[in-house]
Design brief:
By secondary structure, the chain is mainly alpha-helical. The protein folds into two domains: about 140 residues, Ribonuclease iii, N-terminal Endonuclease Domain, Chain A; about 80 residues, 2-Layer Sandwich (Double Stranded RNA Binding Domain). Helices cover about 60% and strands about 10% of the residues. The chain contains twelve helices and three strands; from the N terminus they run H-H-H-H-H-H-H-H-H-H-H-E-E-E-H. Helix 4 packs across helix 8 and helix 6 packs across helix 8.
C-alpha cells in the first residue's frame, strides 16, 4: 500500500489513515481493526464536491446537465475504472472469505472513496484536489462510455408522459461486512418495472433498471 502512495505521489503524514482506508469490513472484523467505512463516507462527499467544482468552472452546462455529468463521473463503475488505473484493487485487505473471491466492484469503489477521505484528512483540500486532477480527470472521457441503466431508463420514461420512477429497497440481508440488497424500480410509485440485486444499494438499483429495460418494450433496449 505504501508503494501505491509513492507511485501516485501522496506524501503522507499519518500512514495509519491510509492503512485504515484499505481495511475492508471483513478484514477489520477478523483482526479487530477499524474498517474504512467512515473514510468512505467522507471521501464520497469530497470527490463529489471536487467534481462539482470542476464542472462548474470548466463548462457552461446548466444545473441538470451538470448533475447528470457528475453522477456519471462518480458512480460505482467510474470509481472502479479510476481504481484500476492505479492498481488499487490489489492493495485492498479482505477477510478470509472475501479474499477467496477477491474484491467486487462495490468494495473497490468504496476503497477508492476511502483513499480520498484519508488524503483529505491527512493533507487537506488542496492536495486532495491535486490527486483528483491526477487520478480522475484524465479518464473522464472513458467513463462516458460506461452504460448507466438508471439514466437510460429515466430518459425514456420522462421522454413520454413525464411519469415518475423511483427505487425502493425491499430486502437487506447479510452481516455488515457482506451486505446484500434487493431493490425494485417502480413507475408512479406502484407499478414494478424491474428487480435487482447487489452488494450495495447503488449496484442493486442499476440492476433493477437493467431488468426493467430488458422486460419493457423500449426503443432504448438496444443500449443495454
Amino acid at each position: 500500500m505504501e508503494n501505491l502512495l509513492k507511485e501516485i505521489g501522496v506524501k503522507y503524514r499519518h500512514l495509519e489513515l491510509y492503512l485504515t482506508a484499505f481495511n475492508h469490513a471483513s478484514y477489520a472484523y477478523e483482526n479487530n481493526l477499524e474498517n474504512n467505512e467512515r473514510l468512505e463516507f467522507l471521501g464520497d462527499a469530497v470527490i463529489e464536491l471536487l467534481m462539482s467544482d470542476y464542472l462548474y468552472k470548466t463548462t457552461t452546462l446548466d444545473e441538470g446537465s451538470m448533475t447528470k455529468r457528475r453522477a456519471q463521473a462518480v458512480r460505482e463503475e467510474a470509481l472502479v475504472l479510476y481504481s484500476e488505473k492505479i492498481d488499487l484493487p490489489s492493495k485492498i485487505k479482505l477477510g478470509r472469505g472475501e479474499s477467496v473471491k477477491g474484491p467486487n466492484r462495490a468494495i473497490i469503489a468504496d476503497t477508492f472513496e476511502a483513499l480520498f477521505g484519508a488524503i483529505y484528512l491527512d493533507l487537506g483540500f488542496g492536495e486532495t484536489k491535486r490527486m483528483f486532477n491526477k487520478i480522475i480527470l484524465p479518464h473522464l472521457e472513458k467513463v462516458s462510455s460506461i452504460k448507466d441503466h438508471k439514466s437510460i431508463l429515466q430518459e425514456y420514461i420522462q421522454s413520454g408522459d413525464k411519469r415518475n420512477i423511483s427505487y425502493h429497497t425491499v430486502k437487506e440481508s447479510g452481516p455488515s461486512h457482506d451486505k446484500k440488497f434487493e431493490v425494485v424500480v417502480k413507475l408512479d410509485g406502484n407499478i414494478v418495472l424491474g428487480k435487482g440485486f447487489g452488494k450495495t444499494k447503488k449496484e442493486a438499483e442499476q440492476m433493477a433498471a437493467k431488468d426493467a429495460l430488458k422486460k419493457g418494450n423500449y426503443d432504448l433496449k438496444k443500449d443495454i
